[in-house]
Each structure stands twice: as C-alpha cells, then as structure tokens.
From TrEMBL:
Record flagged with keyword 4Fe-4S: no
Pathway(s) where this gene product acts: Amino-acid biosynthesis; L-histidine biosynthesis; L-histidine from 5-phospho-alpha-D-ribose 1-diphosphate: step 7/9
Protein name per UniProt: Histidinol-phosphate aminotransferase
Keyword annotations from UniProtKB, A to Z: Amino-acid biosynthesis, Aminotransferase, Histidine biosynthesis, Pyridoxal phosphate, Transferase
Organism phylogeny: Bacteria, Pseudomonadati, Planctomycetota, Planctomycetia, Pirellulales
Length: 349
C-alpha cells in the first residue's frame, strides 16, 4: 500500500547530470559556462544583503522583466515571466496547459525532463523522432485532439542541431496548442525565435541564465510570451518563485551585453577547436550550434571512454537513448580544459 499517485510510482524520475561536490574535476558534463559570470552581479548581491532579507522578494521580479523587455525588444514587461531556472518555466507551462490523460509532444532524442513533467501531470507524452538530417517530420505538427503542449529545444539537446524559424512558424500555424521553443542554448546559435513570439501567441520562448550567463548556480530562467498568456501562467507559478539574490543578480547580468558578446565569442571559438580536435582523433561529431557537442568514436565504445575520463577527473556525459544510440555529449570548456580533454582522449585510445 502506497500513499503515492500511481503515475508517480510508475515513473523513473528525471536524474540530472552528475554534480560532484568534492574532488577537482574538469567538468564538461552539464553544459555550464566555464567562465565566471558578469562581474556586476557581486554588487547586486551585496545590495540585496544590505537591504535585508526579512521581506519577501518582488513576486513578479519586475526589475528583471523590465530590462528583459528592453533587451529583447518586446513591447513591455508584461511579455516576460520569470522562473527559478528555466526548468521552473517548463514546469509552470506543463501544469498550466496539460491535464490528466492529455497529450504533450516532444522530439526524440531531446531534453529528458519534458517526459517526466508529463508523467507528473498524469499526461501522455508522444516522442516524435527527428529525421536523419535533424529536421522534423511533418507529423510533428499534426493537430491531435488531446494535444495540449509541444516542447521544442532549439538548439536541441543532446545534438546541438536547430530547426529553422520558418519551420517553427509553420509548426505553430498547424498546431492546436502552444509551442514552447526552449532556447536554453540559443545564445550560442546563429539565430533565435524571440521576435516570432509577437507573430503568433502559440509561440513561447523559454530562456535561462544558466548557460550563456554563467549562472547555473543562481537558478534563473524566463519565458517570453504574449501578455494574455503570461497573465494566466502567473496564476500557476509559486508566489515567490525567484529569490531576492536571483532577481538582483540576474537583472545585473543581462545588463552586461559586452560580457555576453565576449563570452559567446570565446565559447564559439573553443567549440570549433573541440570539434576539430575530436574529428582528428577519429570521432564523428554532429555540427552543433550550442555550447556542447554530441560525438561517437568510429572504433571505440562510448561508455568505457566516459568511465576512463572520469577516473582521470574529466567529467563528460555518457547518454544512451533507446531506439537511437548511445554516445558522448561534451560541453565546451575553456581552451585549456579542451586541450587537457583532447590530450587525455588521445592517450586513452
Ligand atoms: N532546457 C534544456 C534543453 C536544457 O538542457 C536545460 C539544462 N539542463 C534546461 C532547459 C534547464 O536549465 P535551467 O533550469 O538551469 O535554466
């Protein structure tokens, strides 16, 4: 006899990547930024402390919303919803749109959390396999009566591949429900879909400060969507889903456009170096627009390589997708970390 709902007992649960709390690893397994965040966040955090923590934070994080609307050229702060990381945004959307027994669609292989969110809701999830060229089959846009929400990571994880803006607009026109374009990695890509939010209320863009702002430890993400959508989603979020430190630091971080441009340049340059190095060592690498790459060695199996690297304190991600394949997802680190990784792999092969 269990107290839990059957759907909770039946699910595996989402397991995030390894986060070792001791030992000095070169950590290239969860797509964090290897560089420290914009320096202005220190002062912002001190200001929160100086003000005191005895009061609740602004429940809407309006300072951040106002700045984000300016930065992304949206008409007002009412187009922005803040969350405790973008995982919180994805949770809010699933809770708001998908009821028990209804359907949530996602591409495969993609971000594993989406399926868990559906399971927690007691909803069905439908995984649609990417085509061989990483485009999506037409069936991804098929309207289905029970379909209530579609997730599309762009760039995708674990592949780093992208679906075009034109295809996304077309999808939104065909779908009977909202389409969350999960742009966790879009700051490293050649384009994004932020302006499409203004063209179709079904298109909503989810973003995070965990990757392109070096703030995975802070927990701050946000959604860009039309105001009538944000207005309803507010009812679903926790009252104070972003704490005062996170609001202060996140607002300071997105003010620093120069830091972001410089960081983006460095990561993209190191990504090219990582890909070239891996290819030279005999890996096949999927061309990526994110801060990670998916690769397989032409002769050596992925799992032992991951284990050998871990034993040498270099952490990458081994992933095994049923019905597709297993392989290695490697985050882009600093140039020095990349040199160490490539040399180590070279010595292990
Ligand atoms: N979307 C995708 C595709 C991701 O890979 C991640 C990171 N695991 C997230 C969303 C969530 O990131 P965060 O909650 O740190 O904003």
């Amino acid at each position: 006899m269990s107290f839990f709902r059957p759907e909770i007992l039946a699910m595996d649960g989402y397991t995030p990547g390894e986060q070792p709390q001791a030992g000095k690893f070169i950590k290239l397994n969860t797509n964090e930024n290897p560089y420290p965040p914009p320096p202005g966040i220190r002062r912002a955090i001190e200001e929160v402390l100086d003000k005191g923590l005895q009061r609740y934070p602004d429940p809407m994080a309006n300072a951040f919303r106002t700045r984000a609307a300016e930065l992304y050229k949206l008409p007002s702060k009412d187009w922005v919803l803040c969350g405790n990381g973008s995982d919180d945004i994805l949770t809010i959307c699933t809770r708001a749109f998908v009821g028990q027994g209804e359907l949530l669609r996602l591409p495969y292989p993609s971000y594993i959390l989406y399926k868990s969110l559906a399971q927690i809701q007691g909803a069905q999830s439908q995984e649609v396999k990417f085509n061989a060229d990483w485009s999506l089959p037409a069936s991804f846009g098929d309207p289905a009566a029970a379909l209530k929400l579609v997730f599309l990571p762009n760039p995708n994880s674990p592949t780093g591949t992208m679906i075009s803006r034109e295809a996304i607009l077309e999808l939104a026109e065909r779908l009977p429900c909202p389409l969350i374009v999960d742009e966790a990695y879009a700051d490293f890509a050649e384009f994004n879909c932020i302006d499409l939010v203004q063209q179709n209320e079904k298109i909503m863009v989810s973003r995070t400060l965990s990757k392109a702002y070096g703030l995975a430890g802070l927990r701050f993400g946000f959604l860009l969507a039309q105001p009538q959508m944000v207005e309803q989603l507010i009812k679903v979020k926790d009252s104070y889903n972003c704490d005062a430190f996170a609001i202060g630091a996140a607002t300071a971080a997105i003010h620093d456009e120069a830091w972001q441009a410089d960081n983006r340049r460095k990561i993209i340059a190191t990504r090219a170096k990582l890909v070239a190095g891996l290819e030279q060592l005999g890996f096949t690498v999927i061309p990526s627009q994110a801060n990670f790459v998916w690769c397989n060695h032409q002769k050596h199996e992925a799992r032992p390589l991951y284990e050998q690297l871990k034993a040498q304190k270099v952490l990458i991600r081994y992933m095994n997708y049923a019905g597709w394949r297993d392989g290695l997802r490697i985050s882009v680190g600093t140039d020095e970390q990349t040199d160490v990784l490539l040399a180590l792999i070279g010595s292990l092969l």
